[in-house]
Amino acid sequence: MGLARRWAEALGWVAVNDAEDAYEIRPAPDGLPGLLSGPVQEAKTVTNRLHLKEPWVVLIDPEGNEFCVRGERRA
Fold first, then answer.
1. What is the model's pLDDT at position 71?
2. How confident is the model at residue 66 (pLDDT cuts 50, 70, 90)?
3. Which superkingdom does the taxonomy of this entry point to (predicted)?
4. How far is CA 22 from CA 16, 17, 37, in A?
5. Sequence-ordered list of residues with C-beta below 8 angstroms from that of 71, at least 6 positions apart, any chain
6. Cα three-residue angle 5-28-8, rounded to 5 degrees
């Protein structure tokens, strides 16, 4: 399973591009905002470059990419 499909499934979104070197997911095929991920040339030297300030738990996917999850939102 490609990373786009994995993330889309986890978020309940759709993969609009699932290439090996980059991917994009959105809440709906024409919905925005979406998330686009692609390679960078330099090696990682610090924690994630994008991090939304919420009470997240940091995990690592099977390819070694860090990602954050949080519990269900309550009203």
1. 62
2. confident
3. Bacteria
4. 11, 8, 5
5. 55
6. 20
How far, in Å, CA of 28 to CA of 39, rounded? 24
Residue type, 57: V
Q: Is the pLDDT of residue 14 over 90?
A: yes
Identify the CA nearest to 3 among candidates 15, 13, 66, 12: 15
Between strands 35-37 and 57-60, the pairing is unpaired
Residues 40 and 21: their CA atoms lie apart, in Å, by 10
| Cβ(8)–Cβ(23) below 8 Å | no
Instruction: Write out pLDDT tens, residues 34-61.
Output: 888 887 777 777 766 665 556 667 788 8
Bond prior to 33 in cis (omega within 30° of 0): yes
